[in-house]
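Morning run. Coffee first, then this:
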Amino acid sequence: MIGFLHGSATAMITPFTRDGVDLESLGRMIEYQIGNGTDALVILGTTGEPVTMTLAEKEETVRFAVKCAAGRAKVIVGTGSNHTAAAVETSVLMQSLGADGVLAVTPYYNKCTQAGLIEYYRAICESVRIPVIAYNVPSRTGVNLSPETAEQLAGIPNFAGVKDAGGNMAQTLDTLRRIRGKCDLYSGEDLLNLPILCAGGSAVISVVSNLAPKAVKALTIAVAERKLYKANRIADALFPLAQACFTEVNPIPVKEGMNMLGFRAGVPRAPLTPLLPEHRDRLAAEMKRFGLEVRS
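And here it is:
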């Protein structure tokens, strides 16, 4: 299917307290995103640390996000697993909670074949009515969803496309060539948002847009309007900030960045650790250079 998502989506952090998820703070973050033009909220993606959350916390978070968004932005929920049955069960649950779509990462650790990927995504798609996005991030999972496999998946009616975080533009272009007009491709790599959009990507699923949602949305608009000089200026300004968001494993830096903006984001859950002081200084400097108000 084509057309499920256009523009900017933010891979939302999950703010934690010692007792659980800080829903009040999450609500402020959602309002910040929607108020700055973000088209979709990705809940429980990698940036949201779902692997450290209980099922009860996940349900509570998604239920709250759907209610808070209230149709003003799409809510897309991460449901992937290295166990197909678990991914199916979670996808069905999130559909019942009101998710507009699901984002399913490729199975990790047990490293299935391309044939296994096809069966995995087919099972998820057949279990729900809502759109399904495949999430390809081989640096984390050890599995690469090939362009040929994406082409086969594109024929499934509710397969919405691929979130491409592989960092390989040659593969991205091959995937786009094979799926164009059948399903969509979304940039999952902030440093490559501009070239992926220019090559035909329909949206970005961004980490840096937690901090700068208005600019990321403006980038997508500039490309859509074929104002490439303007798009380049926005991308040039965002690039150092995006780099600073990946000095350590995501979401360590961006979570601290949200704290610096005054959003009470908390700290990552173990085994992730707080941002090192030298990386915090770099992130703070880039946030200030970009024009963001650093409060602490």
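The beta strands are 7-11, 16-17, 20-21, 40-43, 74-78, 101-105, 132-136, 159-164, 184-187, 203-206. Good start to the day.
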